[in-house]
Amino acid sequence: MDEPLSEDVIARLFPLIAIVVFVADALIFHARANRLSSQMPQKRAGYEKIIRAFLIYGGGLTATYAVGVAMGLINVFPPEESVMTAAAGWSPFAWALFVASLLILIRFSVWLYLRNGAEFLVAHGEIFRQFPESPITVKVLWACMLIGSGISMVYQLTR
Question: Are 79 and 46 in contact (CB under 8 A)?
């Protein structure tokens, strides 16, 4: 009988799986943008902007996380802890990744709420499989996501 995967094996494979999934998502976005651009060429620049942001911010964090795990700079399953928390003794690399994630959330929030980002996303919503048709709905959903992220971040910092 096969033994179940250990936490160590899962921790080492997860970044690779995350990169594979991220690349697959990027390829799907690119193919969808090409198809939609042939139908609506006036929206091509908007689709490219969305994909570029996805690659830079999402890809940057995913790749940085993967490198950190591969080099042992981030301990996914700290000893005697099942989650990565500040109390478990984060490395400077883990802190930098945490701060980068926070800054990306802030930057996106400013764009979404103050620079007509929600309206832009709604205007180009067909690049996503399902997307709200109202900027207000986009803003409310993002606020809910921010609340969840904030709770998670506070939990990680105070546990």
Answer: no
